[in-house]
Amino acid sequence: CSRLKEAEASGSNGTKNCGIPTKWPLVLQAGINTVTTLVENKKAQLVVIAHDVDPIELVVFLLPHAPPKKCIIKGKTCTCVTFTQVNPVGKGVLDKLMKAVNTNYNCNEKYNEICCHWGGNILDPKSVAHIAKLEKAKAKELATKLG
């Protein structure tokens, strides 16, 4: 009751918090449709994607849309979240975080080092036998041509 009387006395006419300025909260959007819309409109500053989404097709299409802004981390309750507005005080921290993520996960060298090790160039016995058969046939054909 005293708060309303103070509001009348100050002449704020029912404005929120009796005319006392408040800080804007950080805007964190969650949900695949919301995040997709924000990424397409280039309003997303950092996209965080959960690593255990099932089925994975829910978030796979997000990766090409925001290559410089992706970060795959552990998550529990949603598929992805994004920051759309950050206070100027936290902007430096967010930039430092995004730079660390980009250098550790998004650059081509690290990506190739982390993701693209497919068996170490070791062929299975069937492939080795098939290649040997083809080489033997080529050698036989070359021998018949030469003479």
From TrEMBL:
Keywords attached to this entry: Ribonucleoprotein
One Gene Ontology CC term in the entry: ribonucleoprotein complex
Keyword Ribonucleoprotein assigned: yes
Start and end residues of each Ribosomal protein eL8/eL30/eS12/Gadd45 domain: 28-62
SUPFAM superfamilies: L30e-like
InterPro entries cross-referenced by the UniProt entry: Ribosomal_eL30-like_sf (IPR029064), Ribosomal_eL8/eL30/eS12/Gad45 (IPR004038), Ribosomal_eL8/Nhp2 (IPR018492)
Top-level taxon of origin: Eukaryota
Family: Belongs to the eukaryotic ribosomal protein eL8 family.
Protein name: Ribosomal protein eL8/eL30/eS12/Gadd45 domain-containing protein
Organism: Salvator merianae (Argentine black and white tegu)
